C-alpha cells in the first residue's frame, strides 16, 4: 500500500492529467479554428471554371461558448482566405440548455455582415433556425429570426431558390434547399398535413436547361441520395462531424434517414459528390472531442482533385 507521500503523488498526477485533458478539450472546443481545405473538380464541373469558396456551418451562437468575439474572429479568418464567394450552411441559432442564452440575432448578424467576397454571401437555414426560433410557427410563410438577421446583414437566404452566377466569363448555378427537418402545416382535403420545408424537385425546376454546373446548399446531408446528376456538388453541415469523436469514432451522429452514414468530409457515390463540414458550434453539450471547429476553403476547378 502506498504511503501518504506516494498517494499524494498519484492523486496529484491524476489531477494534472485530468486538468491537461480538460484544458485540451476546452482549447479544441472554444479557442481553435481549423481551415479545412479541399480541391475538387466534381463531375459536370468544367476544369476551366475555377471557384474559391469559403464554407461555414452550425454557428449555434450562444453565450459564453460562441459569443460575438468568437464570431468576429471566425469572420476575420473567413475574409482572410479571400474567397470568390462565402456560403453559409445553416444553424445560426442555438437551443443548448447549458448556456447563458442565445446571442441576439442583431449581434451575430452584425458580425456576419462584415463578410466580403466578389460573388457575395449566400445562406440556407438549418433545423435549429426553426426549432429554436421563438417567433417561428408552423405556417408555410412563417417568420424567421435567422432569415431576418441574415437579410438585414445583406446576405441572400435561399429556401428552395436558385441563382445563376457569373465569374471570369463562366457561369454556374447556386441552389439552396429549404430545411429538411423544418415543418409547416396546411390543410389537404379538409385535414391538417405536415410538410417539409425542403422541396428538391421545385428547386431543380428553377434551374435552366443549360450547360452551367450546379452547386446545392442543403443543411442536412440526408438529401444526397435523392440529388440528381445535374448537381455537381452538394454542400452540407448539420452533423458537427459527430461532435464527440475520439480517435475518429463518433457514437452519435444526427440523421434523418438512419440507414445513411454521412458524418464528415468528401463523399463520392454513383458519380455524384457530397461535402460535409464539421462546422463551428455545439448541440446538447458544450464540448467537442476529436472534431475541431472549422471553416472550409473549397477550391473548385483546375487539373487536380484532392480530399
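Sequence proposed for the structure above (307 residues):
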Amino acid at each position: 500500500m502506498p504511503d501518504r507521500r506516494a498517494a499524494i503523488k498519484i492523486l496529484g498526477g491524476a489531477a494534472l492529467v485530468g486538468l491537461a485533458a480538460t484544458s485540451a478539450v476546452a482549447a479544441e472546443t472554444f479557442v481553435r479554428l481549423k481551415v479545412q481545405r479541399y480541391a475538387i473538380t466534381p463531375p459536370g464541373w468544367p476544369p476551366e471554371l475555377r471557384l474559391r469558396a469559403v464554407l461555414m456551418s452550425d454557428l449555434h451562437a450562444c453565450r459564453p461558448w460562441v459569443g460575438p468575439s468568437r464570431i468576429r474572429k471566425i469572420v476575420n479568418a473567413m475574409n482572410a482566405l479571400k474567397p470568390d464567394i462565402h456560403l453559409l450552411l445553416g444553424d445560426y441559432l442555438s437551443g443548448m440548455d447549458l448556456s447563458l442564452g442565445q446571442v441576439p440575432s442583431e449581434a451575430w448578424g452584425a458580425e456576419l455582415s462584415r463578410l466580403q467576397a466578389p460573388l457575395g454571401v449566400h445562406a440556407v437555414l438549418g433545423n435549429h433556425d426553426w426549432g429554436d426560433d421563438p417567433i417561428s410557427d408552423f405556417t408555410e410563410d412563417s417568420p424567421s429570426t435567422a432569415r431576418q438577421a441574415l437579410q438585414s446583414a445583406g446576405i441572400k437566404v435561399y429556401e428552395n431558390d436558385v441563382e445563376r452566377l457569373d465569374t471570369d466569363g463562366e457561369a454556374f448555378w447556386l441552389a439552396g434547399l429549404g430545411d429538411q427537418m423544418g415543418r409547416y402545416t396546411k390543410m389537404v382535403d379538409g385535414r391538417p398535413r405536415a410538410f417539409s420545408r425542403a422541396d428538391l424537385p421545385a428547386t431543380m425546376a428553377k434551374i435552366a436547361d443549360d450547360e452551367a454546373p450546379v452547386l446545392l446548399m442543403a443543411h442536412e446531408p440526408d438529401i444526397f441520395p435523392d440529388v440528381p446528376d445535374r448537381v455537381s456538388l452538394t454542400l452540407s453541415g448539420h452533423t458537427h462531424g459527430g461532435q464527440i469523436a475520439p480517435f475518429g469514432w463518433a457514437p452519435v451522429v444526427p440523421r434523418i434517414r438512419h440507414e445513411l452514414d454521412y458524418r464528415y468530409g468528401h463523399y463520392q457515390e454513383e458519380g455524384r459528390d457530397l461535402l460535409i463540414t464539421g462546422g463551428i458550434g455545439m448541440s446538447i453539450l458544450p464540448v467537442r472531442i476529436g472534431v475541431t471547429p472549422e471553416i472550409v476553403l473549397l477550391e473548385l476547378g483546375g487539373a487536380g482533385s484532392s480530399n
